[in-house]
Amino acid sequence: MAKKKQETLSSEEKIKEAARKVFMEKGYAATRTRDIAEAAGINLALLNYYFRSKEKLFELVMQEKLSSFFGLMLPVLQDPASSLSDKIHTIADRYINMLADNPDLPLFVLNAMRNAPKKFVAMLKGADHVLHSVFARQLKEQNPDVAPEQLFINIIALCIFPFAMRPGLEVLSPEIGVQFNTLMEERKKLVPKWMKAMLKVK
Questions:
Q1: CB of 69 within 8 A of CB of 102?
Q2: Which end of the chain is more exposed for a tag (fewer CB within 10 A), N or C?
Q3: Which residue range forms the structural domain that includes residue 11?
Q4: Domain boundary among 10, 36, 52
Q5: Do 183 and 124 fall within a single domain?
């Protein structure tokens, strides 16, 4: 029984890994379950046995991606013990680390938003917590003219842009590819600096 369970988990993970790759390359609309089965090295019947449909598999893969993001961010946003300045530093640091560990994430999410916007938005559970967080309250006290969602989007955008554009940036300047990790370590310090300058956070 234990061996059978292990084989089942292994097959499921192989399918999910193949789905991540194919969805990222082709987008949701252009992907067929047959493409995923071929990438996983299994037959279509086995894929359908585990996941039933492309839609179910996409939702599972995307939910894992989004959960990893909000799982990192929500505790930071809701932490009453840390200052707004500390939160900005922590968000930038954690998000850049996550992107470094998951370099396919930006393109995966962008493809999902472009090819299946309704499905993507429906899975954004946790996004509304930004507006009702300790982070939002501290921002209102610091600078009520800046909306919390705007500040949060700015932080995330400044972190994600180099990863999303890395292939093009490396074509423009091969040195960027060599120095990319160093540049991202520097960016962990620069993003909070830019945000705090805008907000005049001391």
A1: no
A2: N
A3: 1-52
A4: 52
A5: yes
